[in-house]
Amino acid sequence: MNIAPGKSAVSNIPFDQARVDRLMEEAGIDVLLATSKHNTQYLLGGYKFIFFAAMDAIGHSRYLPIVVYEKGGPDHAAYIGNRMEGGEHQNHPFWTPTLHAACWGTLDAANLAVEHVRKIGKGGARIGIEPGFLPSDAYALIRRALPDAKLIDATDMLERMRAIKTDAELEKLRTASELITDSMLATIAWAREGTTKSEMIEQLRREETNRGAHFEYCLLTLGSSHNRASSSQAWRNGEVLSIDSGGNYHGYIGDLCRMGILGEPDAELEDLLAEVETVQQAAFSKVKAGTLGGDMIAHAEGVLKTSKVAPYTDFFAHGMGLITHEAPFLMTNHPVTYEGTYAAKPLEKNMVLSVETTMLHPTRGFIKLEDTVAVTDAGHVMFGDRGRGWNKGGTA
């Protein structure tokens, strides 16, 4: 049965179907096989199976969720998951008309995807895949089983799909940022002279977890060191602390950096953080729907270039949402390896950016601010907008 584009008996599709269909058409894709956790989560309306949240491996294989979506045909959509996900469906039914909660590894999941694609008459179609998130054994099986199909890299199309956030996504990103900020400030206040980096990181993990966030990482420096790895280094009076943490709330990322001081910041430290803040504000001043992404980057870099701290300071901005670096991609290979394909494109309402200025001062240490902003028609909205000065340790 062929489904006419835009016509469907499915009423609870959790994404903008018209937009996804348009992006698929532009990419030359008839059917999607989404296999990454972030894209399957997006296409399932926020669902992610908790059993494999920390690790994919099981037995001799690994967990491979697959969402099959036909352009213009949501009635033909399917979710292929682990056998235990049948219980998830009983409690909170998936929107896809077809569910195969039957897999323990990559090959049985790929087999079911092939069977479904054949069943809906798309065995020779243009099929969008995620090469970076499709295991080689599953890819080889699909390639052999569907010799007439054209397999197309859908990565860019899926990134564009997630670039514009819904109001519900913005709220999750705001909540994640607030929880991470609160946790970092509480950890700084808790830490005292003699507290080690390892102890601070563990305290931050507890703070984030107790607030309902999922802790992912903490990069932390003390004193004049630029080393952000966990260690037994202890905080000493007068030293600075930088705390950069990533965690998530219902899968959406909070990623911010704040500064601490044990004692009172001296005039030089106040001045150095003010230089960082000046660059941040320069970037914020250009964040607005319609502004070219590259113009925002160029303005911030121009302000930094005139600063006395420019020789040891770097500016960077990237998109964020379900993962820490996603569309819009504004800078090329800086520092993460990808092309800045959005630099020449206008920022759009409800894009979300992480904006960060990092100083590696030769004697005073690692001084950084990282902030999260959502693009609006009038400018921007900041998430977790507090604690951006010198936060004093040992006050809790």
Descriptive account of the structure:
This protein is α/β, with parallel strands linked by helices and 396 residues long. It is built from 10 helices and 16 strands. Helix 1 runs antiparallel to helix 6 (155-163), helix 4 (106-119) runs parallel beside helix 5 (136-145) and helix 9 (267-284) runs antiparallel to helix 10. It is globular, with a radius of gyration of 23 Å. Mean pLDDT is 96; it is low at 1-6.
Short summary of the structure?
This is Xaa-Pro peptidase family protein. Helices cover 32% and strands 26% of the residues.
Kindly report the average pLDDT value.
96
- Spell out the helices and strands N to C: HEHEEEEHEHEHEHHHEEEHHEEEEE
Strand content: 25-35%
End-to-end CA span? 65 Å
The residue fraction in helices comes out at 25-40%
Uncertain segments are 1-6
Order of strands side by side in the largest beta sheet?
6-5-4-1-7-8
- Number of strand elements: 16
Shape, please?
A: globular
| SS-based class | alpha/beta
The main β sheet shows up as: 6 strands, mixed
- What integer value in Å does the Rg equal? 23 Å
InterPro entries: Creatin/AminoP/Spt16_N, Creatinase/aminopeptidase-like, Creatinase_N, Pept_M24, Peptidase_M24B
Domain Creatinase N-terminal: 19-164
Protein name: Xaa-Pro peptidase family protein
Domain Peptidase M24: 171-377
